[in-house]
Design brief:
alpha+beta; two-stranded antiparallel sheet; 38% helix
């Protein structure tokens, strides 16, 4: 059986260790009550001229920057 070179083994280890940190950094959707309970406030913004809809984001608190559903 062949062994992997140390550089390849190190690169694989680093990439595996970086996965959980990257997944945790991704924003998750929160409810309006979770946003307010976490100390934030809901900011509603029109998309374009408002005809395309609106976006709701939690600003401040624990859920800062997350989408409110």
């Amino acid at each position: 059986m062949r062994t992997l070179p140390y550089a390849l083994l190190t690169a694989l280890t680093v990439s595996l260790l970086a996965l959980p940190a990257h997944a945790a950094a991704l924003p998750a959707d929160v409810t309006a009550s979770q946003c307010v309970a976490g100390g934030g406030m809901i900011i509603i913004s029109a998309v374009g001229d408002g005809a395309q809809g609106y976006t709701k984001r939690c600003m401040g608190g624990v859920h800062d920057g997350e989408t409110v559903i």
